[in-house]
Amino acid sequence: xxxxxxxxxxxxxxxxxxxxxxxxxxxxxxxxxxxxxxxxxxxxxxxxxxxxxxxxxxxxxxxxxxxxxxxxxxxxxxxxxxxxxxxxxxxxxxxxxxxxxxxxxxxxxxxxxxxxxxxxxxxxxxxxxxxxxxxxxxxxxxxxxxxxxxxxxxxxxxxxxxxxxxxxxxxxxxxxxxxxxxxxxxxxxxxxxxxxxxxxxxxxxxxxxxxxxxxxxxxxxxxxxxxxxx
Length: 230
Description:
Blueprint (H helix, E strand, L loop, with lengths): L3 E6 L19 E2 L2 E2 H11 L4 E6 L5 H6 L8 E6 H5 L4 H9 L8 E5 L2 E2 L7 H9 L4 E6 L11 E2 L5 E2 L7 E8 L15 H10 L3 E5 L5 E2 L3 H9 L2
Parallel strand pairs: 1-4, 1-6, 4-5, 8-12
Antiparallel strand pairs: 2-3, 6-11, 7-13, 8-11, 9-10
């Protein structure tokens, strides 16, 4: 069982302004609770015990809102990029910087600003990943209107493809091994897509299509729609 996770919560959320001028995007409320709380509750139900959260924008609000994790049956550790580096380090940079807070073992990764209430962090997927030789297993979703061309494809063998005739959108969720980031320096900005594409070229990233509810809560309009549609 994979018992650790990293939630990405460092971004500024410019497209969500003015809502994010005073509140970090993962702490905005969807259907009665903060976006990030949906993930924390799902992770706890799946048997995850330790969660690392990276922060930057308005980062002091996260410990105040979430505490040490005991309210969710978790232990939360913090990778405060704002205090240490003056701002967010992008996705791969944030992951590499947070790795010392994680055990040298597979971990779940998910962005704190996506809403996917039906995803249960399945233990069977984690077990298959742990027994495999790939460095990441990512979940793709059908392309939303704001990303019609998608990001990656899926081979008949279940491997992620950096380019394909049919592409899907990266959900921000996946299973990862720390080894994927061995060449990504901590404390420096680095994007995730080039890291993934390089590993895909060597057949080291698996992929699956997730068809459950998923929303990138990237605009006030999407947030409002979630809060009016139950």
